[in-house]
């Protein structure tokens, strides 16, 4: 039983070491109905629901970069909030 536990622990450890880290893909999106901008991380592989939005920025590596981009878009009156 002890040997099985060690093998299982090793397998779980190898999984976490060998699995690549999730890359962040922050973008600023604007909802079509409300015209409100939001920062969304497309790096998870999921898309926002509902699908009535427009992507306003290219891929940004950090949340802070996306926050600055959103502030710039709000300053240019491209979106509200």
Compact summary:
It is built from 2 helices and 3 strands; from the N terminus they run H-E-E-E-H. It is of the alpha+beta class.
Indicate the structural class: alpha+beta
CATH class: Alpha Beta
Give the averaged pLDDT, no decimals.
81
**What is the strand tally?**
3
Proportion in helices: 25-40%
Question: Which terms summarize this structure?
Answer:
three-stranded antiparallel sheet; Rubredoxin-like; alpha+beta; 81 residues; 2 helices
Describe this structure in words.
This protein has 81 residues and is α+β, with helices and mostly antiparallel strands. It has one domain: Rubredoxin-like. The protein is built from two helices and three strands. The protein has a three-stranded antiparallel β-sheet. A hairpin with a 5-residue loop joins strand 1 and strand 2. The longest helix has 17 residues. It starts with a helix and ends in a 6-residue tail after the last helix. About 9% of the residues have low confidence.
Topology:
Blueprint: H1 2-18, E1 26-31, E2 37-41, E3 53-55, H2 63-75
Antiparallel strand pairs: 1-2, 1-3
